């Protein structure tokens, strides 16, 4: 593969921008990593993503692509090696459904559980655990969601394996009980041990410190997030 | 003969997306009308995770989530393609479909608004999204979001605008104001008059009659 003009605007602790990096690395595509300070957004970010002003942004041959799931599909269609999405339309629909499900149900609920207090924490934890229960059924008997190899859904859900344990530590709570969810825990180990993924994870201590700070900042106004449950 | 059974509520924007797509592809199907307040056991079996419509059952296998269903149909029946051929343009279309999700809260907010103040607030919120579409998506005065032909963005957003114009009647409030959003207004005109969409556009009187009890029901329970 010749060198392509590929840049990715990322934030080191973002579960969204890391997906893009995982996909590019699995496909062996070289890219320029451009760190963004999401609390002090650069002119570049605001220019490339004026509507949402968020990472990740993939810039390919000077053209910006936004929204992590849209970027994943673009990457898969542009670089054909190590295919991520299944060929079969029914399986593709299945993967897209579960990617959305984890995003809308588990991601918000687990973050909210970390920053909320009292009954609201319990409420968020219940939503989170119910979501994990459903995902557990999808991974039972499989090494990866993609089968023998990492696929789209592994990348879309990969954040679970690394971000949720950090949320658990920061929030002094448990979501991914290994006794209740053995299949998902086994998948997490497989995922995190994959040579490409292992090589591209943000430092855990930094993550814990960062999310402790986030919790302090977000907790006073966490009620605004409850509507996402 | 394909074994296609969409389950939905005819008046729901999400179901409309599926029906329009099937019609645009010239596919025959058996419509399964669900009762929102009394969902069939089959529906609950086909969509155990969300228990929602629409669900497309194809050869006995369920596909859930309206825009996932639309893309599924488009991938299996590529005639009259609903996504751009170019991968960058396709990514743009998918971005706008994802963006349309931001408009979803406007639907219940408008339905549930009663006082002048609540209506004003709900309309203002919807207008934030309209402005983005007007300024970013239609700036080149294209006929449809898909250019010369309808694409997944037209389907996603068109379904919400059917709802918005119904609410205008129900709530006596102007939402798609031509002076404020000339390009969007023109686009919706083009969309409603497009072949296939025009023949499958929900009847205005029927929409009003069906949606009215929802308002009353909402008021009764508040």
How many DSSP H or I helices of chain B?
Answer: 9
Q: What sort of overall outline of chain B do the alpha carbons produce when their principal axes are compared?
A: globular
Question: How many strands of chain A?
Answer: 4
| Number of helical stretches of at least 4 residues of chain A | 10
Q: Average pLDDT across residues of chain B? A: 93
Note the run of SSEs of chain B as H and E.
EHEHEEHHHHHHH
What is the CATH T-level topology of the largest domain in chain A? Glutathione S-transferase Yfyf (Class Pi), Chain A, domain 2
| Spatial sequence of strands, sheet with the most strands of chain B | 2-1-3-4
**Uncertain runs of chain B:** none
Termini separation of chain A: 44 Å
Question: How helix-rich are the residues of chain A, as a percent range?
Answer: 55-70%
Tally of structural domains of chain A = 2
CATH C-level category of the largest domain in chain A: Mainly Alpha
Distance between the termini of chain B: 47 Å
| Biggest sheet statistics of chain A | 4 strands, mixed
**Form type of chain A:** globular
The oligomeric status of these chains comes to heterodimer
**Rg of chain B (C-alpha, Å):** 17 Å
Q: What key attributes describe this structure?
A:
heterodimer, A: 229 residues, alpha+beta, Glutaredoxin, Glutathione S-transferase Yfyf (Class Pi), Chain A, domain 2, 2 domains, 4-stranded mixed sheet, 10 helices, 4 strands, globular, B: 222 residues, 9 helices, 7% strand, glutathione transferase activity (chain A)
Overall description:
The complex is a heterodimer of chains A (229) and B (222). Chain A is an alpha+beta fold. Chain A is built from ten helices and four strands. Chain A has two domains: 6-78, Glutaredoxin, CATH 3.40.30; 89-228, Glutathione S-transferase Yfyf (Class Pi), Chain A, domain 2, CATH 1.20.1050. Chain A has helices spanning 17-26, 43-48, 68-78, 89-115, 118-139, 152-157, 159-171, 182-193, 195-198, 204-218, and strands at 6-10, 32-35, 57-60, 63-66. Chain A has a four-stranded mixed beta sheet with strand order 2-1-3-4, with helices on one face. In chain A, strand 1 (6-10), helix 1 (17-26) and strand 2 (32-35) form a beta-alpha-beta unit. The longest helix of chain A has 27 residues, at 89-115. Chain A starts with 5 loop residues before the first strand and ends in an 11-residue tail after the last helix. A four-stranded mixed beta sheet of chain B has the order 2-1-3-4, covered by helices on one side. The longest helix of chain B has 22 residues, at 116-137. Chain B is globular. In chain B, helix 5 runs antiparallel to helix 6 (116-137). Chain B is α+β, with helices and mostly antiparallel strands. Chain B has nine helices and four strands. Chain B: Residues 2-81 form the GST N-terminal domain. Chain B: Residues 86-214 form the GST C-terminal domain. Chain B: One of its GO terms (biological process) is glutathione metabolic process.
């Amino acid at each position: 593969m010749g060198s392509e003009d590929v840049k990715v605007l990322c934030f080191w602790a973002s579960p969204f921008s890391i997906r893009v990096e995982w996909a590019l690395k699995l496909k062996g595509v070289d890219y320029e990593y451009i760190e963004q300070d999401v609390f002090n957004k650069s002119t570049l970010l605001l220019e490339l993503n004026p509507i949402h002003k968020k990472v990740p942004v993939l810039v390919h041959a000077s053209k910006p692509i936004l929204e992590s799931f849209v970027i994943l599909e673009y990457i898969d269609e542009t670089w054909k090696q190590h295919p991520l999405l299944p060929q079969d339309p029914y399986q593709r629909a299945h993967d897209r459904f579960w990617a959305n499900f984890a995003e809308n149900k588990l991601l918000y609920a687990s973050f909210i559980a970390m920053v909320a207090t009292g009954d609201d924490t319990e409420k968020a934890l219940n939503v989170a655990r119910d979501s994990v229960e459903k995902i557990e059924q999808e991974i039972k008997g499989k090494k990866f969601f993609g089968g023998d190899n990492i696929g789209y859904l592994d990348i879309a859900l990969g954040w679970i394996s690394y971000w949720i344990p950090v949320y658990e530590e920061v929030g002094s709570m448990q979501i991914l009980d290994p006794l209740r969810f053995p299949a998902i825990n086994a998948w997490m180990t497989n995922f995190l041990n994959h040579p490409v993924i292992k090589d591209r994870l943000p430092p855990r201590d930094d993550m814990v410190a960062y999310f402790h700070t986030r919790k302090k900042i977000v907790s006073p106004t966490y009620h605004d997030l409850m509507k996402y449950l | 003969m394909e074994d296609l059974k969409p389950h939905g509520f005819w008046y729901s924007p999400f179901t409309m997306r599926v029906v329009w797509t099937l019609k645009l592809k010239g596919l025959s199907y058996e419509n399964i009308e669900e009762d929102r307040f009394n969902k069939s056991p089959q529906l609950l079996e086909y969509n155990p995770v969300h228990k929602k419509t629409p669900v497309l059952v194809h050869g006995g296998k369920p596909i859930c989530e309206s825009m996932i269903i639309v893309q599924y149909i488009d991938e299996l029946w590529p005639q009259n393609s609903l996504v751009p051929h170019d991968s960058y343009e396709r990514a743009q279309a998918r971005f706008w479909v994802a963006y349309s999700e931001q408009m979803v809260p406007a639907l219940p907010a408008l339905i549930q608004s009663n006082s002048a103040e609540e209506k004003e607030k709900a309309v203002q919120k919807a207008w934030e999204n309209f402005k983005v579409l007007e300024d970013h998506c239609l700036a080149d005065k294209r006929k449809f979001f898909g250019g010369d032909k309808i694409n997944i963005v037209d389907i996603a957003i068109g379904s919400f605008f059917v709802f918005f114009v119904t609410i205008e009647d129900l709530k006596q409030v102007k939402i798609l104001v031509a002076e404020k959003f000339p390009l969007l207004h023109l686009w919706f005109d083009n969309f409603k008059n497009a072949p296939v969409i025009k023949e499958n556009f929900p009847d205005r009187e029927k929409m009003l009659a069906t949606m009215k009890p929802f308002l009353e029901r909402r008021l009764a329970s508040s």
